Amino acid sequence: MHNQCILVTDCNSRWLVFMKKELLVSVFIIFSLLAASSTVLGAATMGEISSETLMTDTHTMARDVRTVESYVVESAHPYTNNFDYTWTITKAGATQIRVHFTQIDVESNYDFLYVYDYANAQLQKLTGTYSSGGWSSWSYGDVIKVRLDTDYSVTKYGFKIDQIEYEDGGGGGGDNVLTNGVTSTSSLATTGATEMWTIEVGANALSMYSVLTCGSADFDLYGRRGAAPTTSTYDWRGYTSGGEEVTFNTPGAGIWYLMVRSYSGSGSYGLTVTITYGGSDTTPPAVTINSPANGATVSGTTTISFTATDANGISSRAILIDG
After folding, report:
1. Is the residue at 303 inside a domain?
2. Domain boundary at 121, 137, 167, which?
């Protein structure tokens, strides 16, 4: 019995040792998992203190012609206290533009880096550390602005931009180009869908009269000069029930962007924008006949192609043969 008791005691001891080892391994695994999750959470909060984020990809939106090129803008390293300065970055002819940050490091919740569009509408408000950098939001038009605003204490690295990316729509805002006084048609497939149009407004414009028809659907219309409007950033809008009819006085020269948005429903629509000009216009339009060539002899049915441009827009076109 004595030997059996020792054997039993020995077995129990080995069992207890085995249980301890199991418990230690389990504790170690749990601790490791907690440490790993803590590291991930810490990276998320330390990487971007604010709710704003930077884009890491270069394929976030459909594009016309997109170009990336070197463009260096940076703050002092470190920046100074009580500093407030705005850098303006312009790419002539661009329809939208954004910048690439190699790094951002500013005092969290006290110093801020802002990104604005051409009209100083805020696109982003960044604070804290973005060690891997990234792309800013897109600014419609050919201008984007970056502002660093610091308080009275604590300085950090600041920021550095090494590239810009821009889209060139060929100088006219893409394919959806409106002609003064002419109705253009299209359709929206679902609630919330949008479509962008542009029209060039010349000098001495007195008013912009926009009419949107959309049948039984409820579509809204937003207008903005120099950049695409959004539902929160615009120069004018029409948001009544059904279609829209909006008159905007003294619109100003430049490319105007008009966004049609489905508030409710889907279907076809028609958009007509009429620009009324004042003052005397003594400069005739510039007309170029593309085909047939000058002096050519033609017979039968002939297609005549020409281009006409005018600072105040072209309201109608006609071809007269021999007078």
Report:
1. no
2. 167
The count of structural domains within the chain is 3
Structural element, H or E, at residue 25: helix 2-47
Q: Does some domain include residue 282?
A: no
Token couple for 317:
């076109």
Q: What whole-number distance in Å separates Cα of residue 141 and Cα of residue 117?
A: 8
Q: Which of 221, 256, 266 is nearest to 240 (CA)?
A: 221
pLDDT band (50, 70, 90) for residue 56: low
For the ranges 118-127, 151-160, 175-184, 282-291, the maximum mean pLDDT occurs at 151-160
CA angle 202, 206, 142 (to 5 degrees): 40
Q: How many CB atoms lie within 10 A of CB 13?
A: 10
Cα distance between residue 219 and residue 244, in whole Å: 8
pLDDT-wise least confident of 28-32, 117-121, 237-241: 28-32
Strands 218-225 and 254-264: antiparallel
| Whole-number pLDDT of residue 173 | 41
Asked if the model's pLDDT at residue 61 lies above 60, the reply is no
Ramachandran assignment for 295, one of left (phi > 0), alpha (psi -120 to 50 degrees), beta (any other): left
Sign for the CA dihedral angle at 180, 185, 191, 194 comes to negative
Q: Are residues 75 and 163 in the same domain?
A: yes
pTM of the full structure: 0.45
Q: pLDDT confidence of 42, banded at 50, 70, 90? A: very low
End-to-end CA separation in angstroms for the chain: 133
Say if residue 148's pLDDT is above 60: yes
Residues sharing a CB contact under 8 Å with residue 154, sequence separation 6 or more, in sequence order: 81, 107, 110, 111
* Same domain, residue pair 230 and 151: no
Q: Among 208, 200, 210, 206, which residue's Cα sits nearest to residue 311?
A: 200
User: Residue 18 to residues 28, 40, 187: CA-CA distances in angstroms?
Assistant: 15, 33, 73
In terms of Cα–Cα distance, which of 145, 81, 138 is closest to 113? Answer: 145
Please give the structure tokens belonging to residue 260.
């049609």
